[in-house]
């Protein structure tokens, strides 16, 4: 069985990807220092798949500890590197923390992969590398823009590191996957995103609906879009997850055209903030308490993906609709509340 190391396996996208990998016959081990991730993800994975996934509680900035994982698992065939900090606001206030964590961990993972002959690595990148693009949808050739935050810069730097590394290590394959806006939870709602104080739209919507927040704000109503609110490409996290399994298999089968390829992972559809709220209200049957406020600094007006490349080369497609996104996110929020109430009693 093909063994894959998932870094950040106790985080949001990592955990959903582990489920898809297991469903496709891979054996998975996880490394997560649990500074942001939660072991609750691994128990959710066990409930869904029946499989116990081993986690190494290791900080990837520590090279010796990272190397131990590779020494103990000489049969790893690929690494999917999710582990990173991802809060845009925090990165603006604490840039060194972001450069240190997101860059050192990547360098250590690549070094260990090279030294231990693990030839396939997937790197989590972000559509933030495109900034405010001149032409929509954005394809992989769209020129990259000056990053809006240290977080976004770590993604551009991470891509550049993979490109330089692959150039001098021709036997080695890297896939750079640029995520648009990952949202939703596993359909069972046993796992989903855990954030104390989320800033992202979907958890803000569900937290408002459940009463954790009195009201939410729509940031901006005067953008040049169909209803004045920003446009994004929201994609179900299980669709993102499946693209990772396919990208790995693509490298393992030797189907890649070059040893460092970039893929956009988006649904290809642009949706406004107000349309997201409408979808939530329809699916949940609840009226959301929101008000329209000022623009949020740093927000791009609109971005959505041309995902032709991933469809053509990876045979991938998005299976989940926006309503399924909202339904799963809402059930996950309700499950979390239910569990915290049981815990309190
Ligand atoms: O309370 C809120 C939260 C968000 N929004 C709006 O909802 C849209 C989506 O915002 P998110 O914060 O959910 O997502 P972003 O598009 O800002 O974030 C994306 O780009 C970031 C980089 O800028 C990171 O890469 C991040 O992981 C990725 O999801 C934006 O128009 C935002 O203004 C609101 O109106 N109200």
CATH homolog superfamily of the largest domain = NAD(P)-binding Rossmann-like Domain
The residue-averaged pLDDT reads 96
Strand order of the largest sheet: 3-2-1-4-5-6-11
Q: Please state roughly what percent of the residues sit in beta strands, choosing from under 5%, 5-15%, 15-25%, 25-35%, 35-45% or over 45%.
A: 15-25%
Question: What is the straight-line distance between the termini?
Answer: 44 Å
Total strands: the figure is 13
- Helix count from the secondary structure assignment: 11
Question: What is the overall silhouette?
Answer: globular
Structure characterization notes:
The chain has helices at 12-23, 40-49, 63-72, 88-93, 95-115, 150-168, 201-210, 237-252, 273-284, 308-314, 322-344, and strands at 3-7, 27-31, 54-56, 76-81, 120-126, 173-179, 181-183, 216-219, 231-232, 234-236, 260-265, 271-272, 290-293. With 345 residues, it is α/β, with parallel strands linked by helices. The protein folds into 2 domains: 3-183 and 234-266, 3-Layer(aba) Sandwich (Rossmann fold); 201-231 and 269-313 and 320-344, UDP-galactose 4-epimerase, domain 1 (Alpha-Beta Complex). The strands form 4 sheets. Strands 3-2-1-4-5-6-11 form a 7-stranded parallel beta sheet, with helices on both faces. Helix 2 (40-49) links the parallel strand 2 (27-31) and strand 3. Helix 3 (63-72) packs parallel to helix 5 (95-115). It is globular and about 55 Å long. It starts with a strand and ends with a helix. Bound molecules: galactose-uridine-5'-diphosphate.
């Amino acid at each position: 069985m093909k063994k894959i190391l998932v870094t950040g396996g106790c985080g949001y996208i990592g955990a959903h990807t582990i489920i898809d990998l297991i469903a496709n016959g891979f054996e998975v081990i996880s490394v997560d220092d649990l500074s942001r991730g939660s072991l609750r993800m691994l128990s959710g994975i066990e409930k869904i798949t029946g499989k116990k996934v081993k986690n190494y509680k290791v900080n990837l900035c520590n090279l010796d500890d990272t190397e131990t994982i590779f020494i103990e698992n000489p049969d790893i065939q690929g690494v999917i590197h999710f582990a990173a900090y991802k809060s845009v606001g925090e990165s603006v206030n604490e840039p060194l923390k972001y450069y240190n964590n997101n860059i050192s961990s990547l360098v250590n993972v690549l070094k260990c992969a090279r030294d231990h002959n693990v030839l396939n690595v997937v790197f989590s990148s972000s559509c933030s590398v495109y900034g405010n693009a001149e032409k929509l949808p954005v394809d992989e050739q769209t020129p990259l823009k000056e990053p809006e935050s240290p977080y976004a810069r770590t993604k551009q730097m991470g891509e550049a590191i993979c490109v330089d590394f692959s150039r001098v290590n021709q036997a080695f394959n890297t896939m750079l996957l640029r995520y648009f806006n990952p949202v939703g939870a596993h359909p069972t709602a046993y796992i989903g995103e855990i954030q104390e104080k989320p800033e992202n739209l979907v958890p803000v919507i569900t937290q408002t609906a459940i009463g954790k927040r009195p009201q939410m704000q729509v940031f901006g109503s005067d953008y040049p879009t169909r209803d004045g609110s920003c446009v994004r490409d929201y994609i179900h996290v299980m669709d993102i997850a499946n693209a990772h399994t396919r990208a790995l298999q693509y490298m393992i089968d030797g189907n890649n055209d070059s040893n460092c390829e970039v893929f956009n992972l988006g649904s290809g559809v642009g949706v406004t903030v107000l349309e997201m709220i409408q979808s939530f209200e329809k699916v949940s049957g609840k009226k959301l308490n929101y008000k329209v406020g000022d623009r949020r600094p740093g927000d791009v007006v609109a971005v959505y993906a041309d995902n032709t490349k991933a469809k053509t080369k990876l045979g991938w497609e998005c299976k989940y609709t926006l309503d399924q996104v909202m339904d799963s996110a809402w059930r996950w929020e309700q499950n979390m509340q239910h569990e915290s109430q049981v815990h309190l009693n």
